[in-house]
Amino acid sequence: MNEFIIVNHFSDLDIGAQELVMKAREALAHAYAPYSNFMVGAAALLDDGSVITGMNQENAAYPSGLCAERVALFSAYALYPHVKILKVAVTAQKRGETELTPATCCGECRQVLLEFENRQQTPIEIIMQSQQYQWIKAPSALSLLPFAFTNASL
Ligand SMILES: [Zn+2]
Fold it and tell me: At 102, which CATH number?
């Protein structure tokens, strides 16, 4: 499967994707986002069935913070360095609201996801919500980074 799957409603996602999105949504409740009030949660499904979550961690010195996706990815590697990551789901919500708001992975997180793909030699599916409120399943980080810079470039 090397194509983007785009559906209009959450219920149109497969059950596995829905479950991972719900884990990401649970995680965003613990986001540390006192500056942006933009709460992001991510959930990574590992090859052994483990789900590792992350949430954005902001900082008064802005660049010192980290996105939810990278918190989840780095946590997954710290806990299970030899287990592949199969899928990552990303969700966001503005503080005080009850519905999710669209959020796709930023460029830096795409680059880190790509590094994980290259390290483990298998793609990572990425589930996220577009600005049009559609749910996207991207087949890999590479699909989100055409003409990517990788270790092959060094
Ligand atoms: Zn990011």
Answer: 3.40.140.10
